[in-house]
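In this section we walk through a basic example: taking a raw amino acid sequence and producing a predicted 3D structure, encoded as discrete structure tokens. The instruction is simple. Fold the sequence below.
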Amino acid sequence: MTLLLTPVNADVRTLRQSHPVKKVLTLRRVIQWTMTAVVVFIGVQFSRWLSAHMAGRWPSASRPPGVEGFLPIDGMLGLRHLIHQGTVDVIHPAGLAIFVGICLMSVVVAKSFCSYLCPVGLLSELLGRLGIRLVGRTLTPPRWLDIPLRGLKFLLLGFFVWAIWFTMSPRGVEAFLGSPYAKVVDAKMWLFFAEPTRITIAVLGILVVGSIFVRDLWCRYLCPYGALVGVLGRLAPFKITRDPEICTDCRSCTEVCPARLKVHTMQRVASIECTSCQDCVVACPVESCLAVRPPKLLGRRVWLRPVTAAVFAVGLYLVVIVGFQAAGHWHTAITEEEYHRRLQELDSPLYTHVGGTAMAEEASE
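The resulting token sequence is shown next.
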């Protein structure tokens, strides 16, 4: 390892060592693994709870409200319901809380959900690193193919926005949120992965193998959630910012950027693909050359240290979660008795997509 020494406008700057190996912020990894452990715990507890009900037994474990974090479409529906009706959906209030928390942290610290809290983001990173160990590099599609492929996730997002915000009336949204299907949609989601079809297994296999050779395959090209927080991130006041006056043009930032951005040419990284992961900040050998910064305030250069930026982003999410819990909007209004009855009749047409959609359409007329 070498020290890069560069004079900067006669100021004395603290210079860090450059690392040829791609590194990540230690705290970011700790947060990612902690969040992944929480998600696994929620999944196991929900599985025990659901299996007992479906077998006709009363479960020893309670239903974890956090499972609603796996229902982003329901969260978007809950947000529209909140905006139009002024009330929190009582069926999946935790889903709304998680959705709002994710949006808030991403609209303040650009797209930070993807790099700090998303377990799929962590898995995608690890698969990409595995690919580098296996073949020495990951594949990069040519620009003419990469750009239209990146557009796929925005098409998916556009479809959900169109379906939720333009085709359904406020009454239709309310009817769907209270429909029999919506009350067991978390169970339906669990069954989708617990009893996968051959097509499901094949698609998941392609995504896993593809992510080994093409870094962030799902996140970069197909994730509508990532597209949403990316759009919100464009509005974020806190973004990765480069100080060209002290930049040595070593290009370490560009080499480690998972989004393949040419960070060394940007003054403010406003790309919709930037997740504020701060890999570039960690790789930069010059103190404060790259940092999470707000716009210049009264001519002053305000910047957040990597750890501070990480704590700030995740803290915003936790404030929303704790706020919803304190307000009594966390646990579902569905009783265990109602769940016990409904979960034993999941094969009924009442709990199919068609049934739920029919109710929404009926209320929209």
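Looking at the output, two observations stand out. The radius of gyration is 23 Å. Strands lie at 239-242, 290-293. In the next section we compare this with other chains.
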